[in-house]
Design a protein that fits this description.
With 351 residues, the protein is α+β, with helices and mostly antiparallel strands. It has helices at residues 3-9, 30-44, 84-97, 118-135, 190-198, 216-225, 239-248, 266-275, 297-304; strands at residues 65-72, 78-79, 82-83, 101-113, 138-147, 155-165, 181-184, 231-233, 254-258, 289-292, 314-320, 327-330, 336-338.
């Protein structure tokens, strides 16, 4: 077990004898108040959250705002390199960043199954707090519901994120033109491989860890120092292929990707080959796909590689006038194949 995991598992409990979550903890009465005061406020307390209002009034002086929301249902809740708590913060922060915005505030809602233990909740809260501090955001409001045993799988988390868009930034697929370069900020498939290795039915012996991370210190310097960024997306569910297809669908341009340029770790590739999975459809939780002009591509790479989360960044393809509305992969064998959007879900409960 790594030091970070040891910290989560050895963190102090909110009660001397914590017991388990009961339906009453989600009922809005004394038990709800107890949960807020003894678990959530100690973990997340700040001047906004401590008002204990249903919403938060937060300052965004004279700037455009970006808003996102997401829900997290990952199985298992703890996996190599992260857990459902840190994942919920990282995913929300990264969605805000992909809008060209600086993440500022997050709302946090828990749906907890009756019988879930306080110890696990405390570990998740510690993880959330550390992730929020690392990403530079504040948790300013939230909600808790407890449902009967069997009505959900232990704990689900919903988030909403608010950020301020950097002046002069306009992130949109409408900005993309033929000749633009496409960058991935690191290897793909790490998160999916890590989660699979943590699922008992797979039982892989692997030191692969999830790439789950906030990209604040990677993306904001890029926005500030690389001129105009055309488009950004984080390839989470559905992976790289689905993101590229979402961008190119119904457009007058196409996308060409060089398979040999897309970084995939050897261990990750081995796991996928065993299971018959395609890394291009694997979920990632700490990567960004970035469209930049050809003239800005080298500068963008230079900036990205200065951060640990961008050290393996690579130009993987370009926008083309050929095959409009389609993503074409030039394989390592010299052939071409269409990369379609993922149909259904390659793996459930991955984020």
């Amino acid at each position: 077990m790594d030091k970070k995991s040891e910290h989560f598992f050895n963190c102090p409990l909110p009660y001397e004898n914590p017991g388990i979550i009961s339906i009453a903890h989600g009922g809005g009465g004394k038990k709800s108040r107890e949960l807020i005061e003894k678990v959530f406020i100690p973990a997340f307390g700040n001047e906004y959250l401590e008002k204990m209002h249903d919403g938060a009034v937060v300052p965004i002086p004279g700037r455009r705002a970006a808003l996102t929301t997401d829900s997290y249902v990952i199985d298992p809740h703890f996996f190599p390199g992260g857990d459902i708590g840190s994942l919920s913060i990282h995913g929300t922060v990264n969605d805000i960043l992909m809008c060209g915005a600086e993440p500022l505030y997050i709302s946090l809602a828990f749906i907890i199954e009756e019988g879930f233990d306080f110890n696990s909740l405390a570990k998740i809260c510690v993880s959330i707090k550390e992730a929020a501090d690392n990403a530079g955001v504040k948790i300013v409001t939230g909600d808790t519901k407890v449902v009967e045993k069997g009505k959900c799988d232990k704990i689900f988390i919903n988030t909403t994120g608010l950020g301020a868009i950097r002046p002069g930034i306009n992130i949109s697929a409408d900005n993309i033109t033929a000749g633009d370069k496409i960058i991935i900020t690191g290897s793909i498939g790490d998160h999916t491989a890590a989660v699979l290795s943590a699922r008992e039915k797979f039982n892989f012996e692997s030191d692969i860890t999830s790439d789950s991370a906030p990209l604040t210190k990677l993306i904001l310097p890029l926005i500030d120092n690389c001129g105009r960024i055309k488009m950004m997306r984080d390839p989470t569910r559905g992976g790289l292929s689905s993101v590229l297809n979402e961008i190119v669908t119904d457009k007058t341009f196409g996308i060409s990707i060089e398979e040999k340029s897309v970084p995939v770790k050897q261990q990750v590739n081995a796991i996928f080959e065993i299971l018959g999975l395609d890394p291009f459809y694997a979920a990632n939780e700490g990567k960004a796909v970035i469209f930049v002009s050809s003239a800005s591509a080298d500068k963008a790479l230079e900036i990205l590689k200065q951060n640990k989360n961008g050290k393996d960044a690579a130009i993987i393809g370009e926008v083309t006038e050929n095959h409009p509305g389609k993503v074409v992969l030039h394989t390592q064998y010299g052939t071409n194949r269409i990369l379609d959007m993922l149909s259904g879900e390659q793996l459930p409960r991955i984020c």
